[in-house]
Design brief:
Layout (H helix, E strand, L loop, with lengths): L10 H9 L4 E3 L18 H6 L1 H15 L12 H5 L3 E3 L7 E4 L22 H15 L8 E3 L1 H9 L1 H10 L1 H26 L4 E3 L10 H23 L5 E3 L7 H7 L3 E4 L5 H8 L4 E6 L1 H6 L3 H15 L6 E5 L9 H14 L1 E3 L22
Parallel strand pairs: 4-5, 5-6, 6-7, 7-8, 8-9
Antiparallel strand pairs: 1-10, 2-3
Helix pairs in contact: 3-5, 6-7, 6-8, 7-8, 8-9, 9-10, 11-13, 13-14
């Protein structure tokens, strides 16, 4: 574990006790660097994607160096789409991205099967890596994972621009595509859970007001997300969580009503406002600025942003998890990641649901830099 930081609890103990409402040594803290963390160790992201051995090695090193609470092989925000025929490219120094959608026509929906986690794309590799992590770290860590949500999957299957345009031109076909996408997300999550016991979360970068108007959100997104949450809750026996990029505060009411256990929100959003509106219903995850602060800021700026997050949401009644506002960017220095974890340990110490961490009392210490008070 990172030099200079001593923790009393394992990640598994910390998350379990915190969820039960007990005080823990520090606020739950995650890095979200599953894909990008490989570059910290001179390993190309392309190699991480294709090898369970490399995945386990990177995750093991991240755990040893930083001691964050997250560990696992996220199925990925494009993995189900790839398994269904969407073409991806895998650069050496960047995350994968879509080069060609799986569908050329909505008529193709009739012939497409549901995703098979044992044969589809890179999912079998990630599944193997996940099982190895469970064997190696199951006693000390809660192994997790995530995948794309049904709306994002639909965009990757037909092409995002076409998907958005066809909400106006071909709304019935878009509805059919969303249903197909939902069936695949539910099927993938159900099968992964049956084989590993892991409750996959999902991400939805396409549902923000930056992309969809409120009218389109309520017409196209709300029904399919609501049903997805309902069905996954039945599968898991607990509620799933979701990350959404961009601005979504105008749809917090709808998302909270769907029954998510927690919402991970963009750094552009105000966590204190979400806490006031829905803090008794949903946990909050966020939202250190991943680019301007974590990637390009100084260690002191990272510490200040961690403190901001703790002040805004550290006392959320339904719980709080410290996290970057999106994936940890490529090129983020180890020193900044260490500053992030150090700030979580110091100022997030003595954390309990519904209460500000006792560590924030350190801000009145004269030895603390005035800029951080």
């Amino acid at each position: 574990m990172m030099k200079g930081i001593q923790t009393e609890l394992t990640p598994k103990e910390r998350l379990t006790l915190y969820e039960q409402g007990q005080e823990v040594d520090r606020i739950p803290t995650v890095l979200t660097s599953a894909e990008t963390g490989s570059l910290l160790y001179g390993i190309e992201i392309r190699d991480y994607y294709s090898s369970a051995d490399v995945m386990v090695d990177v995750q093991s090193r991240l755990a040893e160096d930083f001691g964050a609470d997250d560990m696992g092989m996220a199925i990925g925000s494009r993995a189900v789409a790839e398994a269904l025929g969407t073409k991806l490219v895998f650069p050496d120094h960047s995350v994968s991205h879509v080069t060609a959608p799986a569908l050329s026509s909505y008529d193709d929906l009739e012939s497409l099967p549901l995703v098979d986690i044992h044969t589809g794309g890179r999912i079998p590799v990630m599944l193997e890596g996940t099982k190895r992590l469970q064997e190696k770290f199951g006693k000390t860590h809660i192994i997790g994972g995530g995948t794309e949500g049904p709306v994002t999957l639909a965009g990757f299957l037909i092409g995002i621009e076409r998907f958005l345009r066809d909400m106006i031109r071909r709304p019935d076909d878009v509805q059919r595509l969303l249903r197909y996408s939902m069936e695949n997300v539910v099927s993938c999550c159900r099968d992964v859970y049956a084989e590993t016991g892991i409750c996959l979360s999902f991400s939805e970068p396409l549902i923000s007001k930056n992309i969809l108007s409120p009218a389109f959100f309520h017409r196209f997104v709300e029904p399919v997300l609501s049903e997805t949450v309902r069905r996954l809750t039945a599968v898991y026996g607990c509620r799933p969580s979701m990350h959404a990029c961009g601005i979504i505060h105008d749809r917090w009411d709808a998302l909270a009503a769907m029954g998510f256990s927690s919402l991970s929100i963009d750094n552009k959003e105000d966590m204190e406002a979400l806490k006031r509106q829905h803090g008794t219903e949903v946990g909050i995850t966020g939202n250190v600025d991943p680019v301007d602060v974590l990637r390009y800021g100084t260690a002191e700026e990272v510490t200040k942003d961690v403190i901001r997050c703790l002040r805004q949401a550290g006392d959320n009644p339904a719980g709080f998890t410290l996290c970057p506002g999106c994936d940890t960017p490529i090129g983020t220095a180890k020193e900044n990641l260490m500053a992030y974890m150090q700030a979580a340990a110091v100022y997030g110490a003595g954390a309990r649901k519904g209460c500000l961490p006792k560590g924030l009392q350190n801000l009145v210490d004269p030895a603390v830099s005035p800029e951080m008070r």
